[in-house]
Amino acid sequence: MRFPHSHILLAIALGAGLCPAQNAPHPKIEIRNPSASFLNIGARRAELAHATNPRVLEALKWNKSCVNADQPAPPPGRMVIPHHYLSGSNGPVNPEEGKATLPYRNLNDVVSDGAARYVATGDSAEAVCVANLLGRWAAAGTLLDYSYSESSQA
Q1: Domain ranges in the chain?
Q2: pTM above 0.85, yes or no
Q3: For residues 101 and 46, what is the distance between their CA atoms, to the nearest angstrom?
Q4: Taking the mean position of all CA atoms in its chain, how far away is CA 106?
Q5: Whole-number Å distance between alpha carbons of 44 and 48
Q6: How many CB atoms are located within 10 Å of the residue 115 CB?
Q7: DSSP 8-state symbol, 39
Q8: How far, in Å, are 64, 118, 150 from residue 12 at the CA level?
Q9: 146 — phi, psi (to 5°)?
Q10: pLDDT in tens, 95-143
Q11: Rounded to an integer, what distance in angstroms lies between the CA atom of residue 58 and that of residue 143?
């Protein structure tokens, strides 16, 4: 089974929450090295530069990036995502759910493509693009107005 690189990044991001240090009862969290990472990016880039595995070489050919992508605009208003199914937990899919989640899926795709390309290549334009895109969404407050009881599938 092959997974798109965005799924791999998502798995890494979700796994990052399992870090034992995050569960430690510290009265004050202190960032000692703002350049630190869960990945040794320099070592990973060096490894990729000398890759010979055909699957790795094929994965490095992807042409998706943040810089070259359409930048998804933050949707206006509250985040309200209809249920995925029209009734219950199976059956026909609600077409409104797909429409409502499209901007968020587009954001995920562009951010994960740009971040993966930055990690693999070191192209700082990708990192700047991702940071600017997330900054625009943050400035718009797009992800702040959400109610689980109203939109549990989001």
Answers
A1: 36-140
A2: no
A3: 37
A4: 10
A5: 6
A6: 20
A7: S
A8: 19, 15, 29
A9: -135, 140
A10: 999 999 999 999 999 999 999 999 888 899 999 999 999 999 999 988 8
A11: 35
